[in-house]
Design goal:
The protein has 485 residues and is an alpha/beta fold. The strands form three sheets. It has a six-stranded mixed beta sheet with strand order 1-3-4-5-2-6, covered by helices on one side. Strand 4, helix 13 and strand 5 form a beta-alpha-beta unit. Helix 2 crosses helix 4, helix 5 packs antiparallel against helix 9 and helix 15 crosses helix 16. The N terminus and C terminus are likely disordered.
Length: 485
């Protein structure tokens, strides 16, 4: 059962997870095989030594039994799948890493990848539930054994390769063809898969002021209705500070409306020369117009490419002109979601193509309290890890100090005013990492406050880099401050 579970995970991962998650999964599996081969050699050497001694029958029989277990395990390892899958995925990851290295806003790209990895983790947790493992085993049996399983797995891999080959260079991430995969999984796992998707792409994860949430929900409902009725879509601009939930809303909008999404960055046009950017722009729109499910194109850092033409060279002006020629009318195939920190820099003609402009502000005190409570529950209280060690599965879970209650969270929210949602997420993630590094796996108030001071210091440093004049002061009103180094 575990072997079939791992095989299915390996082939589903390219369609459902980030490339970094896939790489980790495959490398972990390869390391496991390597360790087993080394153990096999050790037992073979041990048996040879015992046979020479001739007076350790019991120990010799035990060594032979262990060697047989390891040999049987290795027989079932599909080394061809691992070699081909790892080679292809490492090539894809290498391409992505080179692309990210040239991005002047690398932190935004890294944050996006982390978000995708967490979405994948939620799906893996579903697959590893005992109830789900039983369904996987039944599903594999119905397929008729490992040969038929390999056939279907290769079809999934082929579908993934198709999406990568046909995808424009400008697209960093896309959900195209994932709806088909999710539908197949729903038939296997039932409503549990739908519940996982609902949890991942829920408006409850987008913590914003009540009026703004209502406005975004209303726009999402309009988009869903247009999708169902086959009406032309509206374009929207989301503007505000980094890390406030603009990309998250695009993904939620995609799921809520039943459309696919594709994510790109305006900064990526800088990699092209001598008119290549215009050719890639046309390639992007040609690809979008072939969408069978409706496509949401999320353009992050839109000001990097669509800024006022008064400040652009001839090549930049030509690119905007090409964009305007492809967006002179609303489309039934795709819609554009612009994201920018500087809406005033967007060219007027480009701005005129946008039907709605919405400001996404930094979270206020109430939103910070809700974020802290949500992330503490999700990443600390509900975070349970199952690790296989010495042939047994051991469960690890964090213990939360009783003093980290609602009142403590309210006080913490006052101290982190000015944080973005992403900074709050990183703050709680830092606490989780530190807690797993302790002997008793406990999130104490001391550990919490130490992480708070560290994050406040980083925030002030970031503000200084941006030449801001106001910073959050390191607090001295908490019950415990970290000791001096």
């Amino acid at each position: 059962m575990k072997k079939m579970t791992l095989t299915i995970l390996i082939f589903f991962s390219p369609c459902l997870a980030s490339e970094g998650t896939i790489q980790t999964l495959l490398r972990g599996y390869t390391d496991m095989v390597t360790r087993k081969i080394e153990q096999k050699k050790e037992y073979q050497k041990k048996i040879e030594d015992l046979e020479k001694k001739g007076n350790a029958d019991k120990e010799l029989d035990q060594a032979r039994e262990e060697l047989q277990i390891i040999s049987n395990w290795l027989v079932h390892c599909d080394e061809t799948v691992m070699q081909n899958g790892t080679k292809y995925l490492e090539n894809q990851i290498g391409i992505s890493e080179k692309k990210i290295e040239g991005d002047i806003r690398i932190k935004e790209a890294v944050a996006t990848q982390r978000e995708k990895s967490r979405e994948s983790l939620e799906f893996y947790k579903l697959l590893l539930k005992p109830k789900s493992l039983g369904k996987i085993s039944l599903f594999a049996s119905l397929l008729g054994g490992s040969l038929i399983s390999a056939y279907f797995a290769s079809k999934f891999l082929h579908t993934y390769l198709e999406t990568q080959i046909g995808r424009p260079k400008l697209i960093r991430d896309s959900s195209i063809y994932q709806h088909t995969i999710w539908s197949m999984l729903k038939k296997t796992f039932g409503v549990e898969v739908e519940q996982v998707r609902d949890a991942i792409f829920s408006f409850d994860n987008l913590i914003l002021p009540q009026q703004l949430t209502h406005q975004l929900r209303h726009f999402a409902q309009i988009t869903k209705n247009k999708h169902l009725l086959g009406l032309p879509y509206q374009h929207i601009m989301l503007h505000g500070k980094p890390g406030t939930g603009k990309t998250m809303f695009a993904r939620i909008l995609s799921y809520f409306s039943g459309m696919d999404y594709a994510i790109m960055s305006g900064a990526d046009f800088a990699q092209f020369k001598n008119g290549e950017d215009i050719a890639e722009l046309h390639n992007l729109f040609d690809w979008a117009e072939q969408s069978k499910n409706g496509l949401i194109i999320f353009i992050d850092e839109a000001d990097a490419v669509f800024r006022n033409r008064k400040f652009l060279d001839k090549q930049g002006i030509n690119l905007i002109d090409a964009f305007l020629s492809r967006t002179n009318a609303s489309s039934k195939h795709f819609m554009l979601v612009f994201a920018t920190n500087y809406p005033e820099d967007i060219d007027y003609a480009v701005s005129s193509r946008i039907n709605k402009k919405i400001n996404i502000p930094l979270p206020g005190h109430d939103e910070l309290v809700r974020m802290l409570e949500l992330y503490i529950q999700k990443y600390l209280r509900d975070d349970i890890r199952v690790v296989a060690t010495e042939g047994q599965e051991v469960e690890f879970a964090l213990t939360i100090d009783a003093g980290i209650d609602h009142e403590f969270i309210v006080q913490t929210a006052k101290l982190i005013e000015g944080f973005s949602g992403r900074e709050v997420d990183q703050f709680i993630d830092e606490i989780r990492s530190n807690a797993y590094g302790t002997d008793d796996l406990t999130v104490t108030k001391e550990l919490f406050i130490e992480a708070l001071y560290d994050k406040l210091s980083q925030h002030n440093e970031s503000m200084a880099w941006q030449e801001k004049t106001t910073h959050i002061q390191l607090p001295n009103i908490l019950p415990l401050a970290p000791s001096a180094a």
